[in-house]
Write a sequence for this structure.
């Protein structure tokens, strides 16, 4: 029986703050991507560079899935965004730099570790700039080469050379060039297509499915060669777009015209 006593909390009584939960599913993909980068470093330390390259490529696939899974399941969180950035720094920043140095660059002495450090530092700068520019960048393009694609250039070259039986000591200056090109391209303002406009829920012509099947078959013929070729083409595509826009008199920057300081939100 109700005795008339008011059991509702007093307006002056502070409410308990709601705990911010950590969603398991998207962070499992992020942790798996982090493991791929860590596994690659361990394999390189043991001289198993073929497995190291595969580890970084697996991290790329998993990294592309965590954000999509979070959006599909409505489990985005600030924790997940920060975790994703830290995972990217290990898998696509530190891991490729250390593996490239261990595989080939250490034969160049001082020049070798300088090239590895430049790549690693540029990856960190690229991720930090991405985080603070999220609100002002044209979503159709990345500002500079994205770090997974830069890692794919470096690791794709190592994977291809290892598959051909070529030792890193025989191509140190080529590795030096790939490390510098990938690193410095990450911090340029060159626009690279982001593929964010591709809608997986939209219906497509039957011919598109056939082309996708042919692409998968082509990759399976010789994965190191085909994948390396794809990422070399992508790594050059930004400069093609830049030159084309410049020639047409179009704006080449993907940054919005507003000069206001962007808010540090929507981190990735």
């Amino acid at each position: 029986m109700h005795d008339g006593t008011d059991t509702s909390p007093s307006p002056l009584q502070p409410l308990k703050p709601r705990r911010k939960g950590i969603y398991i599913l998207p962070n499992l993909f992020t942790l798996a991507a982090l493991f791929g980068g860590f596994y690659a470093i361990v394999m390189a330390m043991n001289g198993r560079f073929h497995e190291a390259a595969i580890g970084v490529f697996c991290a790329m696939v998993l990294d592309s899935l965590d954000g999509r899974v979070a959006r599909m399941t409505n489990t985005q969180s600030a924790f997940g965004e920060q975790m994703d950035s830290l995972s990217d720094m290990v898998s696509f920043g530190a891991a490729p730099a250390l593996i490239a140095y261990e595989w080939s660059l250490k034969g160049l002495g001082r020049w070798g570790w300088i090239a590895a450090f430049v790549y690693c530092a540029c990856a960190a700068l690229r991720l930090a700039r991405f985080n603070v520019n999220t609100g002002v960048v044209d979503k159709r393009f990345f500002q500079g080469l994205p770090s997974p694609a830069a890692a794919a250039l470096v690791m794709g070259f190592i994977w291809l050379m290892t598959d051909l039986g070529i030792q890193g000591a025989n191509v140190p200056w080529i590795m030096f060039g790939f490390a510098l090109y990938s690193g410095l391209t990450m911090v340029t303002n060159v626009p690279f297509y982001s593929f964010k406009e591709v809608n997986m829920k939209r219906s497509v012509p039957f011919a598109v499915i056939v082309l996708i099947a042919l692409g998968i078959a082509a990759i399976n013929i010789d994965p190191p060669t085909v994948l390396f070729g794809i990422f070399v083409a992508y790594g050059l595509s930004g400069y093609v777009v830049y030159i084309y826009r410049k020639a047409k008199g179009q704006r080449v920057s993907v940054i919005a015209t507003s000069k206001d300081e962007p808010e540090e939100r929507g981190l990735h």
Q: What stands out?
A: Residues 141 and 244 are 15 Å apart (CA to CA). The two ends are 55 Å apart (CA to CA). Residues 15-19, 257-268 have pLDDT under 50 and may be disordered. The first strand starts at residue 141 and ends at 143.
